[in-house]
């Protein structure tokens, strides 16, 4: 039996056999490694920049130059007019053997009915498919059915005729037509060249021609109000064209419409002029006297009477303002010591300074004072208690105080209600709080060393007194080795 060599595939460029160790695959054909180059610029290719067209190989630049779109904007630079097809590169390769392989065009390789590209019927491979209407299209066939503009997923519209269109052509062919649906606002676009129909006729109907039963139609014209044109105000239906100001005929909406007492609607300006308040400060400009045609006598007659004297309306004894005895109404009440004061009476009894909840101090004389006057009248006296570190005394007696002296004179508070140390009443401006009760500021000191205390070093003792940390630990803290003044000291004090 004679020897028969293996039938190896032929390289489309040189026509010689291609073996497995040197083959390159593109377009369903096998090429030599050195033949796998661009047909125009002879640049060696690989799988990332190889483009096959009718049995010839090209790099991406040469393929775009030869077969890509041309014209304004498709050149090498933005705004460049380029019609280059690569003809100047052919002269350099005149002596080079070109591809002799003959392949059938892609459009001839038909697919079975219903399986190929809906436009050309050819096979669609994964590298070039575009999806629309659940089917795969060639990238070259994926264009508008009317203007042949190339499409993508953002501007593709699927028509009812199983074709694809750009948004503009889809709107012309299948979109709504008539007044307002043209290319510009307010244009009558019926697209007679798309379907051959005549432009629709628009008939303007007077809304007042169809009269409604009394009390059921538009309050202004009396016509029937249909759903497409109704506007609601005061629980009634108005025509959109009738919903305007009664005086200036300005078109209204829900923001500026005001229902007048005459069952009509007005804009805010006309409503203010007709029904709003009149007088100083109510005009369009600040401080302008706007009476809208009223005389001075009419203004004076309509002006409400106001008596600023709060003591004119006396309240029952014990229920009115503690200072003037007048009735205190909600708009002017101020609270202090559990009673209501007039806002104009809520001032210091000494300096008459206006007070608020931060400055008011309730004195033992059932009056209210500012903090300065309260301190002068009821606060502690002596060295360090004046406005400056000066020794201040209200009488000739020495003001140096000792811990065994009482801070105040007078009647003591009820048992359990005064200061736990001295027993006298504690007022708001000088109170200090602890677990055992409310103390005077000057009494708020350690029971042993008389050191002044605050919330950071306060300790409540089990005997009802307060201590600093050192004295509390000395009296009630643990004792023994390690608990003395020094580490390892035995203290049983």
Automatic annotation (TrEMBL):
InterPro entries: Znf_LIM. One of its GO terms (biological process) is muscle organ development. CDD domains: LIM1_MLP84B_like (cd09404), LIM_CRP_like (cd09326). GO terms for cellular component: nucleus; Z disc. It is found in: Nucleus. Keywords: LIM domain, Metal-binding, Myogenesis, Nucleus, Repeat, Zinc. Pfam families: LIM (PF00412). Residues 9-69, 115-176, 216-277, 319-380, 417-478 form the LIM zinc-binding domain. PANTHER family: MUSCLE LIM PROTEIN MLP84B (PTHR24215:SF35), RHO-GTPASE-ACTIVATING PROTEIN LRG1 (PTHR24215). This is LIM zinc-binding domain-containing protein. It comes from Euphydryas editha.
